[in-house]
Design goal:
- The chain has 17 helices and nine strands.
- The two termini are about 25 Å apart.
- The chain has a single domain, classed as Glycosyltransferase (Alpha/alpha barrel).
- The chain is globular, with a radius of gyration of 20 Å.
- Helix 5 runs antiparallel to helix 6.
- It is mainly α and about 450 residues long.
- A three-stranded antiparallel beta sheet has the order 3-6-7, covered by helices on one side. A two-stranded antiparallel sheet has the order 1-2. Strands 4-5 form a two-stranded antiparallel sheet.
- The structure holds (2R)-2,3-dihydroxypropanoic acid.
């Protein structure tokens, strides 16, 4: 790639920083920052981690509060749920009472959902802490270390839960039980395992996600019905991890999720070292995960990583952005990294700008030549800033600095042109999904820090 940006648009750094901070301030309801001004009015797990990271670029105390608020939702067994409903009911569905978490003996006093999301929290806490020590005074670094000391036990319990509850057979890989847990709700890799989920009795529900976002940018009805059916199964089983592992019709070892578990473990080790805590248990999880990840999820014929469907006992061979997340985690060897980048990321039939499409922006979330690719529908193709950030950081880990810089420029250009929205059409950069989207703003602040030296 020779061109740094999709066009020669100059990034107006100061203005973009101000606009990004304004989104986070607008969405700040005191205890937490809403992921989206209208569409997502509660605190989501991985959104909160990124929001804290973004806030830490200008207000560390507020960033730490965001983390503390999220941890208020932690279950007694260590699970960190995907949504915390600090402020009760809203126009968002599922409503807090829909989850019926009181059926579990582990439920916390605050209302939450009963499933999880990719564990980004340790990663963001580590990045916040290292920035505080790099950029601040010795006192700032000391205060940040005190914060790390405060939250570390909760992070460790969360990581321990992931292995205990979701890998009871010690395969090394952690399972997800619902597409929402992957964060990539309607990705193409879920089509096949969701066909096997037969929604025999779907409780009455009303979709509220079309109120603020266009219907054709959201998951389709057949998917949504199954999302709800799965929740209904879990609540009937009292959210008991053993029953869910034994009976859930959806049980997958996901590439995206496990790569982020591995990355989060690395970051947890760094935090443990800063505190002088033992790291042996975390390192054991890591070596088992690394081995299983590359043996089970790498497909050498295609040069891609695929998720493994535990119920269907096979790889889900859909080419999507999840294949690049192992780079963010440092899970690939040099050869795997080269194949991912040269055969796929730089291939205009799949991810690189150009024909067919044609597209202008990195990184579509589904390969353009994937049968299920749809450039405006949620996780079926649009560019998401979180994915661009992870791919950018992953490329840097493997020495592809120029390509990483191109992706950073594309991301900033998209946000400057179309605002801080949930996702972007890779063909022309049109903003899609929710508006006033907090993690886009948060990651703009992270990416712009480099511009500001
Ligand atoms: C939604 O409501 O679409 C979310 O992705 C579920 O967390």
């Amino acid at each position: 790639m020779s061109s740094r940006a999709a066009s020669d648009e100059t990034i107006k750094v100061t203005e973009l920083v101000e606009r990004a901070r304004a989104v986070l301030r607008t969405n700040d309801v005191g205890l937490f920052v809403k992921p989206g001004t209208y569409q997502y009015p509660h605190q989501w797990n991985w959104d909160a981690a990124l929001v804290a990271l973004g806030l830490s670029t200008f207000d560390r105390a507020r960033a730490e509060k965001e983390v503390r608020s999220l941890l208020k939702g932690q279950w007694k067994d260590g699970m960190l749920p995907h949504v915390v409903y600090h402020n009760g009911k809203s126009d968002y569905f599922p409503t807090p009472d829909f989850w019926q978490i009181e059926r579990s003996p582990h439920a916390p006093p605050v209302s939450t959902s009963g499933i999880v999301q990719p564990p980004l929290l340790a990663t963001c806490v580590r990045l916040m802490h290292e920035a505080a020590c790099r950029q601040g005074t010795a006192a700032d670094c000391e205060a940040s270390l005190a914060f790390v000391r405060e939250v570390y036990p909760a992070l460790l319990r969360w990581h321990r839960w992931l292995h205990a509850a979701r890998d009871p057979e010690n395969t090394g890989l952690v399972c997800i039980i619902h597409p929402w847990e992957s964060g990539n709700d309607n990705a193409a890799r879920w089509v096949e395992p969701m066909i096997r989920v037969i929604p025999t009795r779907v409780p009455p529900y009303e979709r509220r996600d079309f109120v603020h976002v266009k219907e054709d940018e959201r998951p389709i009805r057949a998917e949504y019905e199954r999302f709800i059916y799965l929740i209904d199964c879990f609540r009937q089983w009292g959210y008991d991890p053993e029953t869910i592992y034994a009976r859930s019709p959806f049980l997958v070892q996901d590439t995206f999720f496990n790569a982020l578990v591995y990355r989060a473990h690395q970051d947890l080790v760094a935090l443990a070292r800063a505190l002088g805590e033992p790291t042996g248990m975390i390192e054991d999880w890591m070596s088992a995960l690394r081995y299983a990840f590359n043996h089970r999820l790498w497909d050498d014929e295609h040069g891609l990583y695929f998720a493994y469907d535990v119920r269907g006992r096979r790889l889900l061979k859909e080419n999507g952005c999840a294949t690049f997340i192992p780079l963010f985690a440092g899970l690939s060897n040099e050869r795997q990294a080269r194949r991912l980048v040269e055969e796929h990321l730089l291939n205009p039939e799949e991810y690189a700008p150009g024909e067919p499409g044609p597209t202008r922006y990195f990184v579509p979330t589904q390969a353009k030549n994937n049968f299920f690719y749809e450039p405006r529908r949620y996780w079926r193709g649009p560019v998401w800033i979180i994915v661009n950030w992870m791919v950018m950081e992953g490329l840097r880990r493997y020495g592809y600095d120029e390509l990483a810089e191109t992706i950073r420029q594309h991301s900033l250009e998209l946000m400057q042109r179309s605002g801080f929205v949930e996702y972007y059409d890779p063909r022309d950069g049109t903003g899609c999904g929710a508006t006033g989207f907090s993690w886009s703003a948060a990651l703009a602040l992270v990416m712009l820090q480099e511009e500001q030296g």
